[in-house]
Amino acid sequence: AINDLAGSVADTGGVMVVPAFAGLGAPYWNPNARGAVLGLTRGSTDAHVALGTLRSLAYRSNEILGCMTTDSGIPIERMRVDGGACASDLLMQFQADLLGVPVERPVMTESTAAGAAYMAGLATGIWKDLDELETHREIDRVFEPSMEASERSKLMHWWKKAVERTLDWMEDDE
């Protein structure tokens, strides 16, 4: 339902949602940050907030993957996703656009249990190696980036500006 609601608008109308409900982890490491909805106007609707909320997941992933790339020196060539959120085509396309790399969604999106089973199978000899397990991975869809770098940069600028507003919202002694 949230995907349908978020998909009913072309953009967020300037609405940014920062999901800092328990502070912000990497790369901010700020336990005093708090969640916020910013950029609301009289024209803002629940659909703008829904889209802003979905996009916040991609912004956070983009920041964390940026840190990983910087620290490792290894560029990200594609992103493989799983879990409930990857059911959203809207979110997956925005994630690909924001990262500038393809995002691969598997047929089986709830892979935690499958991963545990695969590891048990490796340990007991059902599968000989990780290469054999790779043949079990079926791709449902690949989301190709289509956003211009200038638009990506502009969106990240507004995201960082929104995050700045939430940092140290609470004091250490509160």
Low-confidence stretches are: none
Overall geometry comes to: globular
Q: How would you write the strand order of the largest sheet? A: 3-4-5
Count up the helices.
6
Q: Rg to the nearest angstrom? A: 18 Å
Mean pLDDT metric: 93
> What percent of the residues sit in helical stretches (DSSP H or I)?
40-55%
Report what the structure shows.
The protein has 174 residues and is mainly alpha-helical. The protein has helices spanning 2-6, 46-72, 89-99, 112-124, 130-134, 149-166; strands at residues 16-18, 36-38, 79-80, 103-106, 139-143. The strands form two sheets. It has a three-stranded mixed beta sheet. The protein has a two-stranded antiparallel ribbon with strand order 1-2. The protein is globular, with a radius of gyration of 18 Å. It starts with a helix and ends in an 8-residue tail after the last helix.
